[in-house]
């Protein structure tokens, strides 16, 4: 009875009738409630104010970091001696860098070339894919996507051509339309348009570029809907309907089908949507199932069934960027365990490359031959002159002896590629070269279309060795372009490097790649440092983001969320120069 009475006494205080009979206690309860509410609300306000203060402090820290970066870059440009730790994409050396006044002058000359090329495009071909300088009109080589404009965005940004960049940005915002009834190359659209837009986003932080990159990537994705996951090479941007070129016999091209990883992995990282990475990585997974012991694949692969198709093996046209991307995806993922399989495949392919290296007589120029079946073909494309830069970039992943071996080979091949230029009357390289016993090298296909591959390799070798010889070679090539290719209304290629007869096309990659690599060849290493950025095969720099997802497997693309989260880049204008 006592426990029951005690329990009843406790419960009476929550009975409303108790307080209705006792108005003084009701008033006291109301006062307590009001004070308690105000106390709780005040605490919440304090927490909110505290969070806002923390946010403001973080923003101030970021602003100060940006200011510090700009001061560092200004110091490097003004000639103050600075140390740049060679890490990431470099060979591990630590060198002192001092700005050379000659470099500054040459950099400004290259920048002037970009101004001339860009202003000509703006004047005569604005919004079109490419400029025909001789006839002063634009042509839509890629379906009217503004290829030169998008290809040039990051070059303009890096060079500090702000007004030109903003005009290009406005065109992207107001006029760029991907809903075209046009059969587009999946590869060219990926490396130029998706890559160009992603790079502009990584550099500027402007989400417009990311949204546009996702739009065009979504239009390309149905090309991967094949039995093997190896994509078709052509797709209509408006209607879909993916297919392959008739001249390939229905097969896909190796470089075109297996060189979208950098762009699509980056797109998944930045959007959080795994589908892009999954499509691109599943191609490498499929290829890895029957990867040959020498790591060399023919230029035609089958999207419908058995991958390998009997055809030419080459590091030139239609093969090149497959090998390049095996290395660069490893670098893009910051060399973590998640991307080790790419490095292993690349090292296997480099063993195969060694089997293709031959030397001329009498001068012993090293070159990378081609192979059909068991027969070697003594021919090398200028396109294959990306290989010296690739070998130098990848050499740091080996032990000391192997690293030096591949770096030395890179230097030998770069000397050969430089002589592709020096051996002609115009000092510009032909499209490819043949090698006959006792004759060293002879121009095969004799046109020059302003290609970047040799200056690309010179850029890497200068960055990775500090040897200024590569800057001198690059300057000689630039002067040959200025002498033979610059006209009043832009730059043109040559129909024949022996006679100097000009063509009527300013290729978009001249602005995207050739001039960018030349500019960086005379810029401090702090401008697009190789331990922070990786270049796609169209020279669009993409931010390196560590990957901590599981190693590539059938579900590789589903692991995007497990990666280190992508942080929007700070608009600190890394390495940009204020002079215009």
Automatic annotation (TrEMBL):
Organism: Solanum tuberosum (Potato)
Pathway in which the depicted protein is active: Protein modification; protein glycosylation
Pfam families in alphabetical order: Glyco_hydro_47
InterPro entries reported for this sequence: 6hp_glycosidase-like_sf, Glyco_hydro_47, Glycosyl_Hydrolase_47, Seven-hairpin_glycosidases
Keyword Cell inner membrane annotated: no
EC number: 3.2.1.-
Residue spans crossing the bilayer: 26-41
The protein, known as: alpha-1,2-Mannosidase
Species classification: Eukaryota, Viridiplantae, Streptophyta, Embryophyta, Tracheophyta
Region of interest (Disordered), ranges: 552-580
Protein family membership: Belongs to the glycosyl hydrolase 47 family.
Keyword Membrane included in the entry's annotation: yes
Annotated Polar residues bias: 555-564
Position of the signal peptide: none
Regions annotated as coiled coil: 47-74
Record's keyword terms, sorted: Coiled coil, Disulfide bond, Glycosidase, Hydrolase, Membrane, Transmembrane, Transmembrane helix
Bias type Basic and acidic residues, positions: 571-580
Enzyme class: hydrolase
Entry cofactors: Ca(2+)
């Amino acid at each position: 009875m006592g426990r029951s009475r005690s329990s009843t006494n406790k419960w009476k205080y929550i009975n409303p009738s108790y307080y209705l009979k006792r108005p003084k206690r009701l008033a006291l309860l109301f006062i307590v409630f009001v004070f308690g509410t105000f106390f709780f609300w005040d605490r919440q306000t304090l927490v909110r104010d505290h969070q806002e203060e923390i946010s403001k402090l973080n923003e101030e820290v970021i602003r100060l970091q940006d200011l510090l970066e700009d001061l560092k870059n200004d110091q490097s440009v003004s000639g103050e001696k600075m140390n740049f730790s060679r890490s990431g994409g470099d060979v591990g050396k630590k060198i002192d860098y001092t700005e050379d006044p000659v470099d500054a002058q040459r950099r400004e000359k290259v920048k002037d070339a970009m101004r001339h090329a860009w202003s000509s495009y703006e004047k005569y071909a604005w919004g079109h894919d490419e400029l025909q300088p001789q006839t002063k009109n634009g042509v839509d080589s890629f379906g009217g996507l503004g290829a030169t404009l998008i290809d040039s965005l990051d070059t303009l940004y890096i060079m500090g051509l702000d007004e030109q960049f903003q005009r290009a940005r406005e065109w992207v915002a107001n006029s760029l339309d991907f809903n075209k009834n046009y059969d587009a190359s999946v590869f060219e659209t990926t490396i130029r348009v998706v890559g160009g837009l992603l790079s502009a986003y990584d550099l500027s932080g402007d989400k417009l570029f990311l949204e546009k990159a996702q739009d065009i990537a979504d239009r390309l994705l149905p090309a991967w809907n094949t039995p093997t996951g190896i994509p078709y090479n052509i797709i209509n941007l408006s209607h879909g309907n993916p297919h392959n070129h008739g001249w390939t016999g229905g097969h896909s091209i190796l470089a075109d089908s297996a060189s979208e990883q950098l762009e699509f992995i980056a797109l998944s990282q930045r959007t959080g949507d795994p589908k892009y990475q999954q499509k691109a990585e599943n191609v490498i997974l499929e290829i890895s199932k029957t990867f040959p012991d020498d790591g060399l694949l023919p230029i035609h692969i089958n999207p419908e069934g058995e991958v390998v198709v009997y055809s030419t093996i080459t590091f030139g046209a239609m093969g090149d960027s497959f090998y390049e991307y095996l290395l660069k995806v490893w670098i893009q993922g910051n060399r973590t365990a998640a991307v080790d399989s790419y490095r292993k495949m690349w090292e296997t392919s480099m063993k195969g490359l060694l089997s293709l290296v031959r030397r001329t007589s009498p001068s012993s120029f090293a070159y990378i031959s081609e192979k059909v079946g068991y027969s070697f073909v003594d021919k090398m494309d200028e396109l294959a002159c990306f290989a010296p830069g690739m070998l130098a970039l990848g050499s740091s992943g080996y032990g000391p002896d192997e690293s030096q071996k591949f770096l030395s080979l890179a230097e030998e091949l770069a000397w050969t590629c430089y002589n592709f230029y020096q051996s002609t009357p115009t000092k510009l390289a032909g499209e490819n070269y043949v090698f006959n016993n006792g004759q060293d090298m002879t121009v095969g296909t004799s046109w020059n279309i302003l290609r970047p591959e040799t200056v690309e390799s010179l850029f890497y070798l200068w960055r990775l060795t500090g040897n200024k010889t590569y800057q001198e070679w690059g300057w000689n090539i630039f002067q040959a372009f200025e002498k033979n290719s610059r006209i009043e209304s832009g730059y043109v290629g040559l129909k024949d490097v022996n006679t100097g007869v000009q063509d009527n096309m300013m290729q978009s990659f001249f602005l995207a790649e050739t001039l960018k690599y030349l500019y960086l060849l005379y810029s401090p290493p702090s401008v697009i440092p190789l331990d922070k950025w990786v270049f796609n095969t169209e020279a669009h720099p993409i931010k390196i983001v560590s990957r901590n997802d599981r190693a590539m497997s059938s579900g590789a693309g589903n692991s995007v969320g497990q990666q280190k989260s992508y942080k929007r880049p700070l608009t600190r204008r890394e390495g940009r120069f204020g002079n215009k």
